[in-house]
Structure formats: C-alpha cells, structure tokens
Amino acid sequence: MFVIFIIGTAGSGKSLLTATFNEWLKESKQDVTVVNLDPGALTLPYTPDVDVRDYINVEALMDEYRLGPNGALIMAADLIADQIERISSEVESLKADVVLVDTPGQMELFAFRESGPYIANELTREPKAIVYLFDSVFSLNPLNYVSNIFLSAAVYNRFFLPQVHVLSKCDLLPKEEVDRIVDWSAKPKALEHAIEEKLQGTRRLLSRNMMKAVYQLGLRFLLIPVSAKTNEGMINFNMALERILAGGEKYTY
Ligand SMILES: Nc1nc2c(ncn2[C@@H]2O[C@H](COP(=O)(O)OP(=O)(O)OP(=O)(O)O)[C@@H](O)[C@H]2O)c(=O)[nH]1
Ligand SMILES: [Mg+2]
C-alpha cells in the first residue's frame, strides 16, 4: 500500500486531481482508496471511500462552540488528529494498492499546524509521498512562482516526505507559457532571467534572494504539468510517483 497526500493552496486543484487520478489509476487496474481529509468540503468531484466528514461536523462545531468558519476548521483539524486511529483502521481495512488523500482547502490548516504532520504520520505505517500543486495561472508571475517555491519548501520542512511537484490546470495556459514555467523549475538561470525581466525594485531583489535561499538548501522543484480536465501529463505524474514510492515498479505486484 502507498499513501499519496495531495497538498496545495486554496483552489489549486487538489480535489479535482484526486478525482481524475483516481479514475486514471482504476482504468489501469489499480486498486485505489480515496480519502477526503477536508472537513469543510461542501461538494467533492469524487465519492470518497473514507470521509473525515463522517467523523467531524464543522457546522456542529460552529454552533456548539460559537465559532466562525475558520475557527471551526482549526478546531476540526485538531479533532481529526484525535480520530486518526479510527480513520487509519478504516483505510487499512480497505487494503488498496494506492491511497489518495485529498487535504483541506486551506493548506495552512494541514501543513502549518501540529496536527497535520501528526495525521500524515499516523495515517497507516505504509510508504508515503506528498504531491504539491503549483496553480498554472497563479505561477505565471515570477513573484508568485517564487512565493510558491517557498511554500512548498516549507511543506517539505514540515513533513519530510518525498515530494512530487505538479503544475496544475496546465490546460489553462498556452503550451509556450507552460514550457516557460517548467523551464524555471529546471534551470535557476531561466528563473533569474525572468525575475530580472518582469520584476522591479524591492520585488526583484526579494524574489532573487528568496530563490537563491531555496536553491542553496539543495531543494529542487521540477514541475510536471498536469491537467485534471484533459488528463494531460497524467502518465508522467504517475511515473514520478512510482519512481519515488515503488522504485519504478507498478504499485501492484
Ligand atoms: N481548467 C482546469 N480547471 C481545473 C483543473 N483542476 C481544477 N480546476 C478547477 O479549479 C477549481 C478548484 O478546483 P478544486 O479541485 O476544487 O481545488 P481545491 O484545491 O480542491 O480547492 P479547495 O479544496 O476549495 O481549496 C474548480 O473550479 C475546478 O474545476 C484543471 O486541471 N483544469
Ligand atoms: Mg478541495
């Protein structure tokens, strides 16, 4: 069994990628369990096999503790941690080859609170990986792109799990733009050039220094363009995960 957490900023495409990758894996005869860890999800583009909303009710928390939606979501994040043993048993009992975990809409609830890494650690003892999403349209601007590199470095620093980096919603940009962003991710020089060209003043200085800081840490963020609408890039995405999780073999033996 391999466990894959899909993480990214709000609206970056986590839930739809979970849905599409689930279908894609099932078509290639893999046995998949889909887990929804977002207690605040109103609708989902897939039917979860394990759903945190069966354990925690955000609206009830709002009523009972007189919390606003964000306060209730923070409380929910900690309550998920309390329930993790039961959730983990439920996942294990389904005995799938691949477990896809869709994480809360607001990434900071999962990535930057104590409960997130605890949940990730306790959700089975099987090998795990993180998929971090860079939203294509958001990443067009080098300043946004660099900020996202920083966020994904922060996520790595929290979980210390192998990480795959995806340029999500790649169907929304022309191919040249997609290639340009992928080029930034492969060649620091190309990104530096874009920063010089498109940014001025303090923004340019900050972006350049932030980028250098990340590269000095030895972190690399090679992006795989993927569309959850057209299925573009799904093969490369799956290969990257197989390489990390199964040493390049299929998930099922
Ligand atoms: N064109 C296109 N749109 C996408 C793609 N993936 C997601 N979207 C759209 O982007 C919006 C957000 O997608 P979600 O999958 O809900 O993103 P999310 O990260 O789960 O969002 P939250 O959980 O609400 O933070 C939806 O309107 C999706 O239809 C994609 O590959 N291509
Ligand atoms: Mg979602």
Protein architecture, described:
The protein has helices at 14-27, 58-65, 69-93, 107-111, 115-122, 136-139, 142-159, 175-186, 188-198, 201-216, 234-246; strands spanning 2-8, 32-36, 50-51, 98-102, 128-135, 163-168, 223-225. The protein is α/β, with parallel strands linked by helices and 253 residues long. The protein has one domain: Rossmann fold, CATH 3.40.50. It has a seven-stranded parallel sheet with strand order 3-2-4-1-5-6-7, sandwiched between helices. Helix 2 (58-65) packs across helix 3 and helix 7 (142-159) packs parallel to helix 10. The radius of gyration is 18 Å and the shape is globular. It starts with a strand and ends in a 7-residue tail after the last helix. The model has no long low-confidence stretch (mean pLDDT 94). Residues 8, 10-16, 38, 105, 168-169, 171-172, 227-229 line the site of guanosine-5'-triphosphate.
